[in-house]
Amino acid sequence: MTVLTLQVTPGVWVARGERGQWARPDPHPHDRAAAAVLPRWRTEEFLASRALLRHLLRATLPELADEPVLAEEQGRPVLAGDPGTGISISHDGDAVAVAVARHRRVGVDVQQPPDSVPDALLRRCLGAHTPQVAPLPQRTRAAEFAWVWTAQEACVKAAGTGLSGRPWAIDIRPGRRRGQWHDFQWISLRDLSRTPLSCAFSAPRDDLDTS
User: Is the predicted pLDDT of residue 66 greater than 50, yes or no?
Assistant: First the structure.
């Protein structure tokens, strides 16, 4: 089964695969129970991303692979038995991605480039960097927008704020492979993933606040 799995920095792992590959006929009991309350159209992507998460946990932190996954008030997923270990899940179209980080907060985002990017959306997310991307051919422009957006989204996911954290306001320079936002490092896996994929993570802390 084709899956990209890598350690982006010591203690932070990312995996990316295709939704169809991870649609299990026998999902983990905890995941099957959680999926039972979802609309049918969301079930496949939900179970595929959970299956990929458990695959990554088995490969990196096997003692946590069977933990129930809960959602905090802002929607950030946490492992019931070890909330200090960060996890993150993303899916878009056929792509699914997950991240695991021991004693860190972590966020991951995968994004299929859109068919086109309106000028207003480009300006909103790229700010002062818009003139660098706006003249590019539409396909290249959409891909660069998606790379920037995954880095912005990964940052707010790691912070646990989601869209309320205004990801579009995070300054990500087009073409960059890594950077820092507040207390988080971010990495865009431009050399390893054809589909835009980025991860953000905090410094490791033994006393990580899980409240």
Answer: yes
The whole-number average pLDDT for the span 91-104 is: 95
Cβ neighbours around 203 below 10 Å, total: 11
- Taking the C-alpha atoms of residue 203 and residue 100, their distance in angstroms, rounded to an integer, is 14
| Enclosing H/E stretch for 95 | strand 95-101
CA count, 13 A, side-chain hemisphere, 184: 26
Does the predicted TM-score (pTM) go above 0.85?
Answer: yes
Query: Cβ(198)–Cβ(148) under 8 Å?
Result: no
Which 3 state secondary structure label does DSSP give 11? Answer: coil
Question: Both tokens of residue 115?
Answer: 């068919």
Q: Which residues make beta-bridge pairs with 108?
A: 199
Instruction: Copy the structure tokens of residue 137.
Output: 């051919």
- Cα–Cα distance measured from residue 112 to residue 120, given in angstroms and rounded to the nearest whole number: 19
Residue 65: partners with Cβ closer than 8 Å, 6 or more residues away: 54, 57, 58
Residues with Cβ < 8 Å from 167, sequence gap 6 or more? 149, 152, 153, 155, 156
